Amino acid sequence: MLTLLATLAGALLVPATAAHAAGTTYYVDCSAAANGTGTQSSPWNAVGSVNGTTFAAGDSILFKAGTTCTGQLSPGGSGASGSNISIGSYGSGAKPVIDAAGATGAVVKLLNQQYWDIGGLELIDNASSPAYRSGVLAENSSGGVLHHIRVHDMYIHNIAGYGGGWYSTNAGVGVQTDHTTPVSTWDDVVVENNTFDHVDRIAVAVTPDGDGQGTGLTTNTVIRGNTMTYDGADDILVVKNDGALIDGNKAGYGGAKSTCPPSGQYCNGASAGIWMSGSSNTVVQNNEVYCHVNGADGTGFDVDWGNHNTTFQYNYSHQNLGGFLLVMPPFTIANEPTSTVPSDGTVVRYNISENDGSNSGCPTSGTQTHGAGVLHFVGGVPNQSGSSSAVPLFYNNTFSVRDGLSTPILYSRAGTSISGALSFQNNAVFNYGSGNYFTTTGTSTYSNNLFYGNHPSREPADAAKVTADPEFRNPGNTSTSSSYTGKNAYQVHASSPVIRAGTVISSNGGYDAFGNAVSATAAPNIGAYNGTGGNLLSNAGFETGALSPWTQASGNSSSVTAANSRTGSYALTTTASSSGANQALTGLSPSTTYLLTGWAKVATAGETLAIGVKNFGGTETYTNIATASYSQAAVLFTTGSSSTTATVYCWKNAGGSGAGYCDDLAVEPLSSAANAVTNPGYETGALTPWAQSTGTASSVVASNARSGTYALQTGVSASGAIQTVSGLTAGGTYLLVGWAKAATAGEEVAVGVKSFGGTETYLRTSTTSYAQQPVFFTTGVSTTSAGVYCYKNSGSAAGYCDDYSLIKLS
């Protein structure tokens, strides 16, 4: 009955001169010299003929490609379920243009009409001064539910609306519920595959006609696959919706305009990219929002007032002035009780935020008036008691802040300590900036996060945190020629410490930002990427709980045990002596360099366990680990000219009394194994181009070499050497390997790197035999050099270093 009444209402409100049989196709050619009857051979030549017709279910209105019609289009009639009325084009050439020529209102207007498909047109309504203007505006004041509005494959641009005015009536596509009694709502709204450019205020808005004007919820809204540039304020907004899906849209450079209508009318100059308010069960996924310049909010995304069960997943946000996500507290809007309800059930997962909080690198920029943060809270942490999630959930996101920025990771306009609590788990925070975090008065959960780079004073305590370089493929996107641009830059290498280092999250969505499965029972990665990094080894962390496809090495049997794991639940456990496991790799490329990494420890310190490779067409090579806590080994090997196989192993050497443990092994190919260090083994017999560190002088000596003839010998304390390596790639991930030992056991010698755009990183050894020190680091987005060093801090005897390598991971 409501559908019938709505259809009748639409027919009464639109001027009608003629009714036609269902299924008729009407043609419009605005370049025709004379107005015809609407057939293809005698087309209409003005929008007035379309506006003067009431169309029926199944009818089509086709505009000729390559032509321009001037005026505003307001066709009459409604379709029916399964038999829509459609607007499109015919002929070949550019999309037909409808140019409203600066008129106030919508270029295409539907009032109390339903079952319409509108596609394939170009809409313009430009003017020197703003007014209430829209591209497509569908309004419902029928007092009931209207169904199916689809707008697709349109080019809507230069809509001169009010940047600070109401949303739906200043939109590229506005779908509006007018304030009526009884309630008016929509069901089945689809806006897809459109291109919007320079639309003021917003590209797509599905809202009531004002704050406090809607008590019903529009259902089944889908906004997907749209591209938006230079929107005056926001990009996408849903208000009073249930079950909206906002998927696969790309929006950039929005938020530059805030011009409001005349005094006394709605005015809001704050804007964000994609957001919702007063809505339930909204899913926002696979979108990219970048370079939003609004100074008041300016974030890529926003969960505003009165929302229930909102999920943000798989989105890519970068260079947005206010940050990645705005989180609004409850507040009071006149006649809008929903605004006082805290948004609850918010889940933020598998998103990537890159250099948000600044417009650095964007063609346009704004000035912050309310500050910025990757996660930008306006007040305390909102959540409604009794909701399905006790606190907002932030997990498995990747947040990257470049050097030179001061963007906080957790920021609130209310101060550095705010009310409420949140859950923050499995997030990868790559922070080369100087920004900090807020604390909460409630009990927040922080676990299994990566905090790499700078470590500000309020960085959350996290007993299971990882602080090593995550080894992203191309963080910061500084190399535009790289295949790992966009969000793909935040996949990781096979040797990354984030792999299997997360904690299991229930109801985790099942997939990461790249389509990789996420187990409900096995430990995930930290960050938005849950793949293996291209690891050529199978069961690399022994997380199947079984040995296969590893095989027993000759000697005493090893086993996979649910103890002593580095990540996940399982590790390989050897016996005390002559015990280990092999894995045969096939399908390798001849004459190619590979990187083998793995983690090992021994039950009895000083005994050795080897991670190595053989049968690859070259000399067997390995690294011994002798520590009682997990240490990483790195082995480079190059296959022979005809070799396509290799055998990787973990092996507890003979003569021990305690077990050995291996976990998290990885093999990946390198496109180049060129060593960026000059005189890496000091085999020239001189220090150059190494330079003395400050303090006691070091020297090159013809003794204590690990290989060759020469090594670096430090003084007893405050002594070492440094080499500035230039020609590196900005935003590149590198592996530095150096070997060090101490003359006196227990004294420490460090192998490290600094001045690369990030925080100085080093590893220390205190053994009297050479131990490998592999250090992974990433150059800053504006840094192409690094200082690699050997340094002995204190003690009574010399230290020694030898055989440095600096390899780019690609």
From TrEMBL:
Where composition is biased (Basic and acidic residues), the residues are 457-472
Segments forming domain CBM-cenC: 534-651
Give the source's domain of life in one word: Bacteria
What UniProt keywords are attached to this protein's entry? Hydrolase, Signal
Q: Which N-terminal residues, if any, form the signal peptide?
A: 1-21
Return the Polar residues bias intervals.
475-485
Keyword Transmembrane present in the record's keywords: the answer is: no
For whether the record's keyword set contains ATP-binding, the answer is no
Region called Disordered, residue ranges: 457-485
Task: Fetch the InterPro entries from UniProt.
Answer: CenC_carb-bd, Galactose-bd-like_sf, Pectin_lyas_fold, Pectin_lyase_fold/virulence
Stated name of the protein: Carbohydrate binding domain-containing protein
